[in-house]
Amino acid sequence: MAKKMSWTPDQEKAIDARGGTLIVSAAAGSGKTAVLVERCIRRLTDTEHPCSADRLLIVTFTRAATAEMRSRLAEAVAKKLREDPTNEHLQKQQMLLPSAQICTIDSFCGNLVRENFEQLGLSPDFRMLDETEVSVLQQAALEEVLEELYTEQDPDFLKLVELLATGRDDASIEENILRLHTYSRAYPSPEHWLQNALSLYDEPSRAYRILKESLQELLDSWVLKWENAIRQLEAERTPPEVSFDGTIECIRGYIAELDTLNKLLDAEDWNGFLTAVQNISIPGLKKPKDPENKRKNYSSPALALASKLKEDFTPAKLPGAFQKFALSDEADVAVDNALLKPLARKLVDTVLRFDEVYTEKKREENALDFADTELFALKLLVKDPAAEPFTRKELAETLREQYEEILIDEYQDTNKLQDTIFAALSKDDLFMVGDVKQSIYRFRQAMPELFLRKKEEYPLYDTEKDEYPATVILGCNFRSRKGVLHGVNYTFSRLMSKAVGEITYDEHEQLNFGAKDAYADREEPDVEFHIVTPEAGADKKEAEARHIARYIAKAIRESQGTAKPLTCRDFAILLRSTKNTANVYRKTLSEAGIPVYAEQGGGFLETPEVMTMLSFLSVIDNPVQDVPLLAVLLSPLFGFTEDEVAALRIGSRYTNLYKAVLAGEERGDAHCVSFLEALRGFRTLSVSMGAGELLRRIYEETSYDAIVGAMPLGEQRVTNLQMLLQYADSYDANSSYGASGFVRYMDRLGEQDSSLNTAATLSPNANVVQIMSIHKSKGLEFRVCIVADLNHKFNDSELSRKLILHPELGIGLQGRQPDTGFTYPTLCHSAIREASLRSERSEALRVLYVAMTRARETLVLTAFDAPNKNSTNDSLAASIRSAAGKLYGGDVVPQIEVLRCSSFYQWVLLAFLQHPDAKLLRARDAEGPVALLPLVDNEEAAPVVFTIDNGEDAADAEAAEEVLSEDVPVDETMVSDLKDRMSWTYLHAALAASLSKRSASHLAEKPFSTEFFAESRPESLSRLGMTPAERGTCLHKFMQYADFSLAEQDAEAEKQRLIDRGFLLPDEAAVIDTAQVREFFSSSIAERLKKSPRVLREHKFAILLPAGQFDETLSGADAEEEVLIQGIIDCAFEESGTMVLLDYKTDRVKNGEELAERYRDQLDLYKVALEETLGLPVREVSLYSFHLGQEVRL
């Protein structure tokens, strides 16, 4: 019997509290999905206040989560029914569940719009655009709008282009229009948000106040540093004749200067602050003399710390620390704002203009994008989306009465538009569950501040008071071992704060150990921090990957014989970004003999097979491009060697590569002849084919998919090629620019760093180490989680843009000097940059939190620390020394130091350097400031393994492998059993090589040869790019669908009729020789055909015949086994109660005897099949040769 679920008191609150709106802050591993399901089940099974399944709206973040939620609810209802099978209410819920509103927000809004299309003026059969279609339509709209603006020659627009331009084309201005357009559509009224996005230019005081916070944080950090220096000086023991009084007095003077600056900031005296910074007076640091050598200053660790601080605290350097804030006097700010506001206004107007054109293009396509469905849904629900508070429409009131409760999963990832939709539907009965510490989708316009605002406003739920709205916190983690949770808590209690992380990681946010019955105590620590220190110049990521490979091999080996031995599938390697990194880890682990799988997210356009195909399409469009042409020649497509290409260049060194290949053709170079023959054929095809059709032909003619399928990771490579085909087909559906336009489109995606993921081909049961991005791992868990590549730098590209955006502050533009063209930071730009920096670092800190909370049993953090090439410095010691200098805030890392970090590695080093077990790290720079650091030894400081790997343990790993390879006793019984099994013979082995299903037409074909399979040598292409077989198919289609009486009178008119009816494509009709058609209808067999009372065209059949009839090697019972024969008879007609079989042929033959001999066996089968299926005798079998223009009787 299954054990009954035991709920914690907080979980019970979240499940049973029903009097109003409730927000549930559910920490990682706290069972939020189980709580959500249980809440729904109790609502459905409540005997006093039963709720029907169709009166709940359950919104999830992904389709996978929707499917899981529906499945869990169905399973729970079925379980309740087994306990109470006569319960009519439960029976009804079971029937209602399949149609219950359990969906994503996109799905809900899409359905709402479809059900009320007439109110929006939409067609009922509108369709949803995919990403490719959206990109194509947006590009068309951009080109149209920009062309109009350039024609108008508006001065503000031209200045805007000059400011934002980064090259010779419009790529930068286009990108910024799209960014602002996408950003605005996360709000209830995009136009309203865009109009308000300029407000900072009218209120510079707001920008000053934002920078004031950062400036005060900087000043406070200096105060803390100097106060820490004073504490260290006062605590240090010195000889009696040495006094630090003068030094301390000097430092107190520094603190007084900083206090003066802080007072000016408090008074918001910006000009006074600037003047004080420029005129600051900072005397030198007084140092006591060495009592043994009066010519020298005394030396000590505390004095060294103060001296190091003073190096950066000088009148020359201190103003530079404030320069990044772009502080100017108020008069200069007013001038900047007056110049830039019209440009920002023009940008907003351009975005609105683009939206109009884009909307019209979508209307022409009768299509919407996903943002449209949400905006239209809100338009159906409220009268004025921009109004606060809004007024509901009748539909919203109806739906409010329909839903007894709205449950929202992953609420931390909603945006303002979605939140307004939920509010419009709710009658104060929202149940919102999420965890702001796991909000990692800001790049998709997620707004965790919505969750935070409610969490801070709503008081903690009190069962006795039962007042709403309220907050419930689920802090118990049921996923991980206790040591893992301590490691997470220790890290984030020191790093995460309101300033960086947007939430204070206190006792309410810490993870509490809940899996007490799941894990037994063990001696080994649950958290490990490994630092790899390769030699200068070595590949650092490879060195880290080799270390991880050794760790995994050792962990698996040492776990054998335990109650729960580890296997490869128990390990996951999580990366901040898999692009350009996952392959390094995959290759290194594979070389170490460890099965591994890596999804190279965002690397689709960088995969070799896709790059080769795009290069080939580019060459087909324009062969005079050396780089793509060289890539194609050297690829498996055509297999040129480096020596061959070098010989071509030597022979034509002063021209482009294409002309060199042409010269090679003239010299009779067979490889060049073959390549150019194929290229010319494909260039001919590209004129009339779309990108998708052309790609299919390339795959078919070159067998490139078969070639890459034979390479390592072949299955994934082939799937990538199929994905490229899908992108091409999607592009063709919305564009007529063909292959050349598709290449430009894919190039643009690459330039925009679009996240096109490679194909996923992993089996759920595969015993492999998984390598994935941290974002991909969200919601997953692993026994051993290795968070690797901690050195990966944060992507601050958004912060360095000339145009920067913020949800509350709007648009910030850099200034531009008209005479030099140089750009400079402005007050508004710097204010938004500072606010965005905090948002970006908060998001990154949450990403690290997600990564560290994926581990169930063991959490391993790995990084490398190595000097640059040709350097002899101890890089790790330098990193430790730098980190120690930032730890002046007691038990927590100062906020400004967390903000200044540029990688996870710097954060983790700061968090753990004061850990009691980090002796190995502190010893690396024992003479530096780390010696002055106090240990942070609290209850969360559980044991941690610290490892520094300089490569010396590689020999130990190899020695261990040798021990494993020693001889072991042979199990003779097992060997005997294996021999018996391997020697078993199938009784019908002869039949195994014989096909059980055959095509009648294939019986006339020659055996397939593999001699030139996958050889890059396309068949010669005939006129209009069709092979003889394809032209024959076109003629067969004509004979299948044509009206014989009309075709006899005017074959050309009949071809056009078939084109108009959609039976023939123009290209197909063009290859049909009407003279041959006319000749057929003047033949005697055609005359008989026209007189027949019954004519069959394209008559399909399937019959069973003995296998021995087609395979002479079979005998006895095997020969009598039946095989299925399928085929299609071109034409048969009835004559005097019997059938005449007629087959059309377009083969080029010398005479009828040759044709008859070639197809005799096939037509004998057709005769048998026709007689068997119709029950009439076949009196005559004939072929009609269109090439010879005659009937051939068999």
Question: Taking strands numbered 1, 2, ... along the chain, how are they ordered across the largest sheet?
Answer: 15-16-14-17-22-13-23
> Biggest sheet, in brief?
7 strands, parallel
The overall strand count is 29
- Given as residue ranges, the uncertain stretches (5+ residues, pLDDT < 50) are 955-968, 1004-1024
Using the alpha-carbon principal axes, give the shape: globular
Structure description:
There is one protein chain. By secondary structure, the protein is of the alpha/beta class. The chain is 50% helix and 12% strand. The strands form eight sheets. A seven-stranded parallel β-sheet has the order 15-16-14-17-22-13-23. The chain has a six-stranded parallel β-sheet with strand order 3-2-8-9-1-10, with helices on both faces. Strands 24, 25, 26, 27, 28 and 29 form a six-stranded mixed β-sheet that branches. β20 and β21 form a beta hairpin. α11 crosses α34 and α21 crosses α37. The N and C termini lie far apart (76 Å). About 3% of the residues have low confidence.
Outline of this structure?
With 1194 residues, this protein is an alpha/beta fold. The protein is 50% helix and 12% strand.
